[in-house]
Amino acid sequence: MVAAAALAATTAVSGCSSAKGAGAPTLTWYINPDDGGQAQIAQRCTAAAGGRYTIQTSLLPRDASAQREQLARRLAAGDSSLDIMSLDPPFMPELAEPGFLAPVPAALAASSTKDAVQGAIQAATWKGKIAAVPFWANTQLLWYKKSVAAQAGLDMSKPVTWDQLMTATEQTGKQLGVQGIRSESMTVWVNALYESQGQSILENPSAPVADYRLGLDSPAGQEAARIVGTIGTKGLGGPGIATQNENVTMQNWQGANGSFMVNWPFVYAATQSAVKQGTVKQSLLDDMGWALYPRVKADEPTAPPFGGIVLGVGARSKHPDLAFDAVSCIVSPQNQAYYFVSNGNPPADKSAYDDPEVRAKYPMADTIRESLDLAKSRPQTPYYNEISTSIQQRWTPLAGVTASTPKQTQDFVQAVLRGERLL
Predict the structure, then answer these.
(1) Nearest to 49 by CA among 317, 339, 329
(2) CATH 3.40.190.10: which residues of the chain?
(3) Which DSSP string corresponds to 116-154?
(4) What is the DSSP string of 283-330?
(5) How far apart are CA 412 and CA 414, in angstroms?
(6) What sign does the CA torsion over 186, 183, 371, 310 have?
(7) b/e string for 119-136 if b means 16 or more Cβ within 10 A?
């Protein structure tokens, strides 16, 4: 349904572009599926351009890995139609390293990061330079039922740890909402467990691959494996944990056995919609609370997952100057605020959170902004796919994660990077 809405909006933008004056270049913006918000912003920025160019949108596949594959292949082939691209941040270094992305002008690099949350700046940076432009940012929060937290005796105004959540889940007989499916969401979770202990999975991402230092086999890895393995062996995530992605986790949380859940902000708007549709009761929404992502250790700050989208311009674009002008319009605080209100995707720019419409629709806006400043990116490397896939394969199923998992994962990643093993 989302893809259909975006496709319809894309068609509308294309029609609008053809109606402009002859000779005005048409810029193609390759977008990830959403609820039509990017196509609407394309219309806004086409109007703001005053006839200098038009922006048409082209829809990428829904799956992030499929998006990466399509863009990488076309960029490698020198496709000049890739003017603007919505990029999942972990895949940006793979495109920046071989020069597939046009250099971001210094003025735009400065203006787009001046008020950006720290997580977005980190995600847009490769080898010390802004290689793409922050557009929207995303982070996971800890969502909970106030009634269950009270039953467990947890004071949610204070930071809570994974151990506290596991204990509370056992005591109340409820289920802990995590994403246990073998997919990118597993890398998101594992990375957050490492980063929340000050340990990066990849310690020197800018080094040559032969010199990579991996932090998987570490004390932080032992603790991460203990948490994941405990949730799996004790069945704290419920019987269907192996198939739980973000949507399934949310649906389970909305049920009678829901308690605490780590998930992206879309769950709030989705729960509101479910109330309107009559599939869940208003009392559930009234019982819904939120807090920062759980800590691993009580005395160390959390490092929540970071997601979102950065914008890149293809190095072979015929109109890179105009493309960056369009990017500057797309990422304006006003458009970021509009995108949050209309599509539920949080801004990368801090000032956008002060927009009255944002604050009216998202009472947890300040918590999201705080989380994004604490958030840490997944490993930034041209070999991200190799690292992420290795983690997904060895940290699932959850019940199979043991003290040996971090070392097994590190050994496998190193073998893959040396070309000795295949994924």
Answers:
(1) 329
(2) 2-138+306-374, 141-303+382-417
(3) B-HHHHHHHEETTEE-SEEEEEEE-EEEEEHHHHHHHT-
(4) HHHHTEEEESPPBSSTTS----BEEEEEEEEBTT-S-HHHHHHHHHHH
(5) 5
(6) positive
(7) bbbbbbbbeeebbbbbbb
Q: Tell me 62's DSSP state.
A: S
* Residue 136, phi then psi, degrees to nearest 5: -130, 155
17-72 pLDDT, tens digit each: 333 445 899 999 999 999 999 999 999 999 999 999 999 999 999 888 899 999 99
Is the model's pLDDT at 89 over the cut of 60?
A: yes
Strand partners, 86: 311
Share of residues in the chain with pLDDT > 70 (%): 95
Band of the pLDDT at 106, cuts 50, 70, 90? very high
Q: Is 3.40.50.150 the CATH number for 2-138+306-374?
A: no
The sign of the torsion formed by the CA atoms of 373, 410, 391, 134 equals positive
Q: Which residue, chain included where needed, has tokens 């394309």?
A: 42
- What are the tokens at 62? 């829904």
Percent composition of the chain: helix, strand, coil (DSSP 3-state, to 5):
50, 15, 35
- Please give the share of the chain, as a percent, with pLDDT higher than 90: 93
Q: What does DSSP assign to residue 101?
A: B
Domain 141-303+382-417, CATH among 3.40.190.10, 3.30.43.10, 3.90.180.10, 3.40.50.300: 3.40.190.10
Q: What does pTM read for this prediction? A: 0.90
Query: Dihedrals φ, ψ of 145, to 5°?
Result: -90, 120
Give me the helices (H) in 19-140, please.
Answer: 37-48, 64-76, 92-96, 106-113, 118-124
pLDDT for 181 equals: 97
44 by DSSP, 3-state: which? Answer: helix
